[in-house]
Amino acid sequence: MILRDMQAKSLQWAASPGLRVGLETPPSSSSWSQLAVVNLHGGASVNSLKARGLFVVKAMEVEGSKTASLNGHAGSSDKNGNLLSLVGNSTNIKWHECSLNKTDRQKLLKQKGCVIWITGLSGSGKSTVACALGGSLYRRGKLSYVLDGDNVRHGLNRDLSFKAEDRAENIRRIGEVAKLFSDAGVICIASLISPYRKDRDACRAMLPAGDFIEVFMDVPLQVCEARDPKGLYKLARAGKIKGFTGIDDPYEPPLNCEIVLTHKGGACPSPCEMAEEVVSYLEDQGFLQA
């Protein structure tokens, strides 16, 4: 196939079993002249693929061969005739399936892997609740791991700043790591401001339906600023930090999150009480058993 970049906004998805890929075509088109071609090996969903910033392309079948060119990179078929993937800047790659899968790992752990995504303003208590939740699950014999936004920036994301594009990449990377934990059967608790809906929704789209549990720390700005555990609000008010969420950069609250932990009537439940709300949800949804 020969591929080149196109615009994607008005396209819809259809299946092409012969090519074993996903194809996009304009609803009004009667031909397949404009296609998006993406290998679907590895069980990835259309939503998860779209969330990774896939390329929409113009494709043409060439009898007897399948080759591709995208952003200067070449793709091809393997020796069995299977189309190799073009994902971002990675070319000529193929998902390798293992006989041991997520279901097997969940049976071993006696739980179901998922991602609990805790979002809210700085100072809302995300990290504290995440750790309390991890402790509560541990006492129940359940395996979890906390991906704290600041902690991840000490290593994996140390190359990223707090500019808009770097914040988006920070969230994308954490989303991908969280997805791996979930696939391992672990209950992954991601705790980070993640101020923009589109970035959180992109992480949701990486996972099977129901496996992404968005938890909103609904704590007013004035309460968070009064707490100011890191002294960041004071620095932002003094103009020493630019683009600080809640001060001179927006926070977009979730519209349809699974759980809202609320600061009620001037009093805030304890971190352990908030964690138990999340545990109750996990129990009700069957995540604490295989």
Task: Give a verbal description of the structure.
The chain has 9 helices and 12 strands. It has helices at residues 46-51, 102-109, 126-139, 149-153, 164-183, 197-205, 221-227, 232-237, 271-284; strands at 12-16, 21-25, 38-39, 67-70, 73-76, 85-87, 90-93, 114-119, 144-148, 187-191, 212-218, 259-262. A 5-stranded parallel sheet has the order 9-10-8-11-12, sandwiched between helices. It is globular. The chain has 290 residues and is an alpha/beta fold. Strand 4 (67-70) and strand 5 form a beta hairpin. Helix 3 crosses helix 9 (271-284).
Quick summary of this structure?
31% of the residues lie in helices and 19% in strands. It is built from 9 helices and 12 strands.
Which secondary-structure class do the elements indicate?
A: alpha/beta
Tell me the distance between the termini: 43 Å
Q: What spatial form do the alpha-carbon principal axes imply?
A: globular
Say how many strands there are: 12
Secondary-structure element string: EEEHEEEEHEHEHHEHEHHEH
Question: What percent of residues are in strands?
Answer: 15-25%
Across the major sheet, the strand order is 9-10-8-11-12
